[in-house]
Amino acid sequence: MRQIFLDTETTGLSPALGHRIIEVAAVEMLNRRLTGNHFHCYLNPEREIDAGAQQVHGISIEFLQDKPKFADVAQEFLDFVQGGELIIHNAPFDVGFLNHELSLMSQAAIGTVCASVIDTLKLAKELHPGQKNNLDALCKRYFVDNSNRTMHGALLDAELLADVYIAMTRGQDSLLIDMNEPVEMQMDASGAALPKVPLRVVRASEEELAAHAALLADIDKESKGTCVWNKTN
């Protein structure tokens, strides 16, 4: 199961208004484990960046002047995401921008390249209706450290989304466990294997059993013979 966590930053809110992608990142996960493989690129949008957008991501047009255009890296990007399941927070936004960039190159939509698309914002709203479900709120809810996220950034946000998604779908782990696999040995802080400790069974003493019986007798007396524990013995 190959999943690709994807995020973009843009010059504005709508490709219909001519806005473009200025940063794209994709992080690979296999069988619910990050592989360390990723695609990340800043892009020259060949247009100005809206002031509101720049306040969100902090990327200036001056920084992007010497960066490649989307068309220059499109094939490398498509090769990376090929066949994977895209997982995106607010997927319609990013997919809309990707499809716009691809259409400018007369390329087919991203959905023809990837197996499927999961929108984690939609998933979060179903799990937590009526609550905040932006990435920061989900990081807080699922104890994912986002202390380095002072501004939006495609690569960091894609990595954070991967951690959030694993936490959100934790119940799926049980469906993926191979019961024939050996249990991993526990390690201490130095990495050394901890010795297996047998389960200790502590049995009640005669005095404790007598005290327990006396307590049940008192309960039975107070409840006029309706003590449930006595009836089960």
Poorly predicted residue ranges: 174-185, 189-193
Q: What CATH architecture would you give?
A: 2-Layer Sandwich
Which class of secondary structure composition applies to the elements? alpha/beta
The tally of domains stands at 1
Give the CATH superfamily: Ribonuclease H-like superfamily/Ribonuclease H
Question: What order do the SSEs take from the amino end to the carboxyl end, as H and E?
Answer: EEEHHHEHEHHHHHH
Q: Helix segment count?
A: 10
What's the helical proportion of residues?
A: 25-40%
Number of strands: 5
Lateral arrangement of strands in the main beta sheet: 3-2-1-4-5
Q: Give the averaged pLDDT, no decimals.
A: 87
According to CATH, what is the class?
Alpha Beta
Specify Rg, calculated over alpha carbons: 28 Å
Fill in the CATH topology: Nucleotidyltransferase, domain 5
Strand content of the residues, in percent? 15-25%
Note the main sheet.
5 strands, mixed
Mass-distribution shape: elongated
Q: What's the N-to-C terminus distance?
A: 52 Å
Summarize the structure.
By secondary structure, the protein is an alpha/beta fold. It has helices at 51-57, 61-64, 70-81, 91-104, 120-127, 135-141, 154-168, 173-176, 206-222, 228-231, and strands at 2-10, 21-30, 33-42, 85-88, 116-119. Strands 3-2-1-4-5 form a five-stranded mixed β-sheet, sandwiched between helices.
